[in-house]
Amino acid sequence: MKHMDGFINLNKAVGLSSQGAVTAVKRILHGKVGHCGTLDPAANGVLPICLGQATRLAEYVVDHAKVYSTRLVLGIETDSYDASGVVMSCRDASGISEENLRQLLPHFCGEIDQRPPIISALKQNGEPIYKKARRGEKVELAPRRVSISEIRLLSFITGNPAYVELLVACGRGTYIRSLARDIALAANSRAHLSALVRTGIGGFSLTEAFSPEEFSQRRGGAESTDIINAIRPISPLIFKTLELPFVYADRDQINPLIYGQPLEGEKLRSLINNLPEAPAAGIFNADDKLIAVLEKKDRWQYGHVFPV
Asked: Regarding the domain delimited by 6-64+203-239, which CATH topology (the fold level of the hierarchy) does it fall under?
């Protein structure tokens, strides 16, 4: 079977875990497969799948902004903050108006502290905390700093319960379930999510995504043109979609990069000087093959080096 490196833009279905989606792809391609950012089983939408050497680039996709469309049920809270959980409390939502919500939402934009839900895959002492919670053990989670760039009210239906649809653009580590709960508490009510769809992350959009079934039904198995065309190769275009810079190395710069020679050395200094300010950058050869990813800390340093 031909070795494949790249990304698949997968539309994960409700009820399927992120690892389950990886397994479904692995049944077809068999090589090294991972995913770029966990999506809750109760959610659907974009889950980029990385293949082969692209697994080493997953962190740069995960760090990118994500966009969600979500539906809140105001008045009812569950232990998981979504529809899969057990109802824990109710509070009349009939007094909440659309204007109330429009006034509240800006307070949740920017850098905010958020406490993750206890029914989640986060781990304590190597064990997912949802397992501890399901056993009735006390779980305490400290608030975490997250970034939310936009919250847009798409629709509102008053009543008890009341129904709200939001568009949310946010950074890594944000729990939309926790956001829903916090918004409801600010409105003196309770809430849970009845639907969550990730519509985009790092240049991967829902309109271009394949379902696991669509991918598995592509004819001809792992060698087919259909399968190959569904895979985005590791190329400068990937760096463009992630809004990360890239440059081309000269022939006499490639070996020093491959062997990890100092970036401040004579042969590589001019390459580094051409890089703009960014958290990371790709270095390609003349054939558009990725040679290395450099990361900017206090100075540029090696992140990953790839075989040629």
From this structure: Pseudouridine synthase (3.30.2350)
